[in-house]
Amino acid sequence: MGASNTKPLFVAGNWKMHLLPSEGLNLTRELKAACLERDMKGVRVVLLPPFPHIPAMAMLSHEGFEVGAQDCSERLYPGAYTGEVSAPMLADCGAKWVIVGHSERREHHQEYESTLERKLREAVKAGLGVIYCCGESGPTRNCGDEAAKQFVMKQLEVVKVIWHEMDSLHGNILVAYEPIWAIGTGKVPTPEQAQDMCAAIDGWFQDALGVKEYAIPVLYGGSCKGDNAAQFFSQRNVCGGLIGGASLKRDDFLQVVDAARGVKGA
Ligand code: PGA
After folding, report:
1. Is 30 a residue of the active site?
2. Which atom of ligand 1 is nearest to the CA of 103?
3. 54 lines ligand 1 (CB under 6 A)
4. Which pLDDT score is estimated for 266?
5. In a mutational test of the pocket of ligand 1, which residue from 48, 108, 224, 256 has the highest number of ligand atoms less than 8 Å from its CB?
6. Rounded to an integer, what distance in angstroms lies between the CA atom of residue 129 and that of residue 203?
7. For residue 42, which phi and psi values (nearest 5 degrees)?
8. Rounded distance, CA 253 to CA 27, Å?
């Protein structure tokens, strides 16, 4: 335990394909009001709704209460790519962040490293901050901690490539460690297991990029909610959470926000 009070702390809500835009706007208004009433003590909230929600929600955003997207096109803007949404469009709508490489995109849309590399490049060029997701499957975890770490570190290689290529990635990237077996299942790693992996990720970046601890804050995600968030957030190298199911209701999400505030001593 023993969280450093200097570490950044993010609470990001990944709404996935939930909530109509009108419902999302109401939820955003409620969350904004609740956050403005609270001493947020350096806790940053990021809401990641489906694309159609973004313009209206972004009008309600402010420093420390930001809006982002769950994905962006790998294609160069502009172009004849029916159905694609480009990173510059998201930035123009007021999005500050974009998720790249969520396991559901990797699995359902066959997004492999070459695609993710292009998405990272487009996001950074557009000035978006990136929330890059990584995490091992259940079978890989069953092969042991070392196998899980090796798998995850390989997923980080693409970040290293872009880091060296594009200075504007520096200070504009979070990594979310989300073990696939924990997403939407109610199963979670122990706080020590989460810490072990998040410390390994942070250490890998320190070695690979020559940066200091927390240069790339590492969030935990996967069935993280009000009653377990504090245990994760108080781990030294866990800099907040990427929250799915528990981000869809005001009180559930605020419990996670309050857990983060508690860790910051608010
Ligand atoms: P969950 O989802 O909190 O519902 O497990 C997290 C995520 O997939 O980002």
Report:
1. no
2. 8
3. no
4. 72
5. 224
6. 21
7. 80, 5
8. 10
Residue nearest to atom 1 of ligand 1 (CA): 244
What average pLDDT score do residues 191-210 get? 98
Percent pLDDT > 90 in the chain is 96
pLDDT at 4: 52
Q: Contact, 214 vs 239, CB < 8 A?
A: yes
State whether the beta carbon of 222 lies less than 6 angstroms from ligand 1: yes
* SS3 category, 186: coil
Read off the tokens for 152.
Answer: 């995850």
Cα end-to-end distance, the chain, whole Å: 18
Confidence check: pLDDT of 3 > 50: no
CA atoms within 13 A on the CB side of 101: 31
The CB density around residue 109, as the number of other CB atoms within 10 Å, is 11
Task: Please give the share of the chain, as a percent, with pLDDT higher than 70.
Answer: 98
Query: Which amino acid residue places its CA nearest to atom 3 of ligand 1?
Result: 244
Q: What's the gap in Å between 142 CA and the centre of ligand 1?
A: 20
CB 263 within 8 A of CB 231: no
> How far apart, in whole angstroms, are the C-alpha atoms of residue 126 and residue 108?
25
Strand partners, 174: 131
| Rounded Cα distance, 160 and 109, in Å | 23
The structure tokens listed for 250 are 């005001």
Please indicate whether residue 1 or residue 208 has the higher confidence score (pLDDT).
208
3-state secondary structure of 94: coil
Q: What is the dihedral of CA 8, 164, 76, 45, to 10 degrees?
A: 0
Q: Determine whether the shortest distance from the Cβ of 135 to ligand 1 is under 6 A.
A: no
Nearest to 103 by CA among 131, 75, 127: 131
